Structure formats: structure tokens, C-alpha cells
Structure prediction request, 503 residues.
Amino acid sequence: MKNKYRVFSILIITITCIAAGLFYFTLAEKVGTIYVDNTAKAINDIKQTFLKHTVNNQIRRIEERREEETSRMEALVQETERKLYFIAESASGQFVPIFEKTFDDEKWTAVLWDVGSGEVLFDSGGIPTDWPVSSLPDEGEKFAAHCSWSYGRYSAFFGISKEYSNGLVKKAIAREIHESTFPFDSYIWVNEVVNYEGGLDYAIRRIHPNLKDTEGMLLSTEMTDIEGNLPYLEELEGVKKDGEIFFTYFFKKNNCDAISRKLTYARLYKDFNWIVAFGIYMDDMQPYIDKTKAESNTLILQLITLFIVVLVLLLILTYALVVVSEKWFHKRSMDALEEKVNRDPVSNALSRRAGEDALRNAFSRGFDDPGNPAIVTFDIDDFKRINDTYGHDAGDRVLKRIATVIRKHIRTTDHLFRWGGDEFLLLYRGLKPENIMRVCQNLLDAVSAEIHSFGGRQETVSLSMGITYFRETDTDYPDALKRADIALYKSKVNGKNQANIEL
Prediction:
């Protein structure tokens, strides 16, 4: 009886152990499966958030760059308008050649009329010449900045087209994307849609850091990946329907021939017909998932809770890492863009945008020393002759050399800005009017003493300067700039290589 009872007990214990083991392994397998599936979904959600956030930031940078270019074009048009009035007052009947010289640049669209006779005196092309200056129906919508101008018997329209301004933006964004780096072997690319109906040649590969040599090639919605998917068709249909889409396909990895599955987010930027996309490869997920499943099948049931805690912490850490990494890369891109915007690449002087900010801040501080700085505008005498004779590369070298000389002769508290073309602006904080002429003469002497070599020839160049300070009657800093321009014009008229002041 005892033996039967022992056998029965052993059998019960054995069956219980087997049942407990089966239950454990079944539970572990189920928990492992759920764990693996949730891990994959969470990582996928994090990656989608990262992709979408990055693309949206890139489109935001496109908008910001367009606003900056438009502001720059508006400032250039306003400055040109002011200069035309100054020139017109002293043109002595020779205004038409000066008008032609002023707008001898591809960025300008300009027409000049004789109001009395209706004769078109100058036409750069792009505007019907029989339109009166006072009514250009909807033509202004084609321009980033424009102006209707009249003086005496002259009437004119001039401006810079949105096509030109947008072209500058597109080039700048292409450089930014090519120079940008992202984690996980990822990158941004841009396709430009030319036919929203799809088919052959429906789009142009506009920017692609992974395949730079294919930029400009035509794309087709009939192209397939190695699995027979139609990624271009899926992308086009998605952005047409919702303006954005997440999708996956197989594509070649960066800097190697390996092909892997890629998760991509694409968004349509309608103004440029650009599909801005950002993708990340998914093969890095599988090794992690396999390892997690193997460990979950070998650990005891009591450790499942611990693994779940570890998983949650790992997911939080992964999410934090992705967010911090994206912010860090975004900050680096924005810092690099800010440096480019605030620094002129040719002369290495500060940019006009930085100069406008400095003038605005100085004007807001008031007009008492040292808050009221000396404002000095200058340009290079006969600079166009240098460009025409020796080429623009030689002109750029002259700009850089003069900027270097100027910086050697000013204080660390003074600032040099390139205002545009061969025109610069200096801000001398705390320099009193009785001393400014002596300081400017030193600069004139230093610049004219420099010898510039152009092949086998050597020449010197000189500057013409205009000086002013803020007045209490000024409504804003452009009022002071107008006086500085008048003083600069006097320096030109009086023989160049000199400085004049308007207080």
C-alpha cells in the first residue's frame, strides 16, 4: 500500500512538475512572443517619430531660408530705389546708361519708360513693355521683391523674381542636406515631381546624398525594388492623398552595395513640388529581437518581471537617445546655417543680415556715447573695372584682401560687414565725431598702400567713404544709412579715395 502510495505521490509530483514546466515554457514563450512583438512595435514607433520630426524640421528650414532670402531681396530693392533717386538728382541727362548699368545683372527684371513719349528706354526682358508702370496686373506676384519707380519724365518697374530667389534657396538647401549627417546610416533626400499623374519621367531625383552621381535623373512610378514593390508609386499616391506617407521598401545602403529594408517618411512641399523624405534601415532591429527571444526562453518565470522592467528602461533610454541625438544633430545643422547666414563667404566679413541686427540694436540703445556708434559705409573705387578686366575671381581676391586690411586697423569692439557687392559697412562704437575722420583717413591710407597682383600686372585700389551718426530725429537706422550714402556719394563726386561726413 505504501509502495502504491509512494508511486502515486511520485507520479503526482512528476505530473505536477511536468505540468508546471510545460506551463512555464508555454507562458515564457507567450510572454517572449508578446515581448518581442511589443519591442518591435515600440522601436518602429520611435523611428517613425524620429523620421517625421526630422523631415518637418527640414521643411521648416526651407521656409525660414525663403523668408530670409525674401527679406534680403526686399532690402536690396529698397537700397537700389534709394540709390536711383540719388543718381537721378545728379545724372545730368545721362540717367539711362546709369539705369542700364545698375540692372546689368541676371537677378534683375527691369523696364524703363519715357512718360511723355511712352518710349521704352530699357528692357531687361520678362515684363510686357506696353504695360504702364502704375498698373502691372498680378505681375508683382511673380517677384520676391519689386518696386514701381518714377522720377521726372522717367517711370520704371524693377524687381527680383521669385524664381531667382527660390533658386538660391534650393541651392542652399541642397548644400545643407549634402553636408548633414544623421545616425543609423540615414539621410534626407528630395524628389521633384513634374507629373502628378505618375508614369515614366514623373519626377526628378533632385537631392540624394547616397547617390550624388544620379542627381538629375528622371524617375518612374514603374520602378521596383528587389521584392517587386513599387516604392515611387506608393510614395506619389500617398503624398497626393494625404500630403505625407510612411512606407517601406528595399534599397541600397549608404557607402556599400548591401540592400536592406528601409522605413521611410515622405512629405510633399507643394511650393517647390518637392517630396522631402527621410529613411532609416530596419535590419538593426532583428538581431536585438532574436536575442531577446532566446533569453526569454531560457530564464525562469520569476525573472520575467525583471526583464519587463529592463525592457521599459531600455525603451525609455532608446527613445531618449533618439530624441537627444536628433536635437543635437538639428542644433549642429542650425548652428552651421546661422554661421553661414551671418558670415560672408567671400570676404569673411560679417553678413548684411548681421549688420542690420547690429544697427537695429545700436539704434535701440539710444544716441549717447558709447551707445551712438560711428556708421561708416564705403565701397571700392572702380571695382567694376577690376571685375571686367581681370575677372570676378580677381575681384573676389580684392574684396578679401581689403577686408583683411580693414580688420587689422580696427579694434576688436568694432565690426565690419559686407553690405553687398563691393559695398561694406563699419560700426565704431564710442568713437567721437572729432576723431572719426582721422581714423577713416588711416584706413584709406592702409588700403591704398596695398599692392594687388593680377597676373603680370600690379595695381592699387582706393575706397570712398561716407560717415554719419544717429540723430534724435531718426525714426530708425535706415535714416542714418541714407545720410551715410549721401556722404559716400560726395566722396565719389569729389574725386574718390576720401571720406565725407553727414551729421
Notes: The longest helix spans residues 2-89.
